[in-house]
Design brief:
single chain; 13 helices; alpha+beta; two-stranded antiparallel ribbon; globular; 4-stranded antiparallel β-sheet
């Protein structure tokens, strides 16, 4: 699952939303039959026209200056594996509705992330979503640079994703809300006035929402914590994930369920060491690690014995119910 928040895909977000709304109508322009066109949606509505989207967003800017952000774009892009999983689970038609329901849950998480008493769900926000089916090659893509495809060509594979335009102001047009205010509560006075937004916490919550809503078993490499740790984590943290990754590769169907329960609450908040991870496995009585470490000379055993001696102070926050 890839989720990010940007100003716009068409340039500045400090003026009218018309340019972005028009851009997100690009797939509808290729359809001649109005019944096939993809309408916009928001809380409890799935029939919003692009004209209504623009008007409502552009009129929800009370007391904002010319240089202030007026709206933000939330991009929600399931992986190809996640799309295939949902298609198999629900079928193509219901899949579209389920993705829209998921997007609404993501916007609930967006609202709660500001930690303001008056902003408790997506119904407190002014936002509109659009389901898109394709992505297109741009000048920055390697295939374009190599002359294999042209700018604007449709990318291969499952590319279904959602674009959400959310107003800087809340639904009452009174409260300013910006995901750029990422103080995370460190400045109490600032957070009380403008809200606080923890971008990583929002992404982690959105990932977990998908897994909980659709009963999706997310592998270690699919988790946000994996990509961030491998990019910015310490050597010790990376080695811990490498060991879990090796364990995952060796699992059979009878041991996978327990393993996924173990890693589902791995968080960006590192606190437990590898020895505790081992103890959790052992306490569950699965014999999983015992079987993997039966050979005293294998790589798993050497790594784990090393970490037992080192007693890492930072690793992975795992909670088992």
């Amino acid at each position: 699952m890839f989720i990010n928040i940007t100003n716009s895909e068409t340039g500045s977000n400090k003026g009218s939303s018309a340019g972005l709304v028009e851009y997100l109508e690009k797939e509808n322009k290729l359809k001649t039959d109005n019944t096939e066109k993809e309408l916009w949606y928001t809380n409890d509505r799935y029939d919003v026209s692009h004209q209504e989207v623009r008007v409502k967003l552009d009129n929800n800017v009370a007391k904002l200056c010319k240089t202030d952000d007026k709206f933000f774009l939330v991009n929600i892009s399931p992986s190809e594996k996640e799309i295939f999983f949902l298609k198999e689970k629900y079928g193509k038609e219901i899949l579209q509705q389920k993705l829209k329901e998921y997007a609404t849950a993501v916007m609930d998480a967006y609202a709660l992330n500001f930690k303001k008493d008056s902003i408790t769900s997506s119904k407190d926000l002014l936002w509109f979503g659009k389901l898109e089916y394709f992505r297109y090659y741009s000048i920055t893509d390697e295939k374009v640079k190599n002359g294999e495809v042209n700018v604007g060509d449709i990318k291969e594979g499952e590319q279904m994703h959602l674009q959400i335009i959310v107003s800087r102001k809340d639904i009452t047009n009174k409260i300013k809300l910006s995901p750029k205010n990422n103080s995370r509560g460190k400045n109490t006075e600032h957070s009380a006035k403008f809200g606080q937004f923890d971008n990583l916490a929002f992404k982690e919550k959105s990932e977990k929402l998908f897994d909980d809503m659709f009963d999706y078993q997310r592998g270690l490499k699919e988790k946000l914590v994996y990509s961030i740790t491998m990019d910015k984590g310490s050597v010790e943290e990376k080695k811990v994930l490498n060991i879990l990754e090796q364990i995952e590769d060796k699992l059979n169907e009878s041991t996978k369920e327990e393993y996924f329960k173990l890693i589902e609450n791995i968080s960006l908040d590192f606190s437990l060491d590898l020895e505790n991870i081992i103890e959790v496995f052992d306490s569950k009585g699965s014999g999983l690690l015992a079987n993997l470490l039966a050979n005293e000379n294998n790589e798993y055993n050497e790594n784990i014995q090393f970490y037992k001696k080192k007693k890492l102070r930072k690793s992975i926050d795992i909670k088992i119910n």
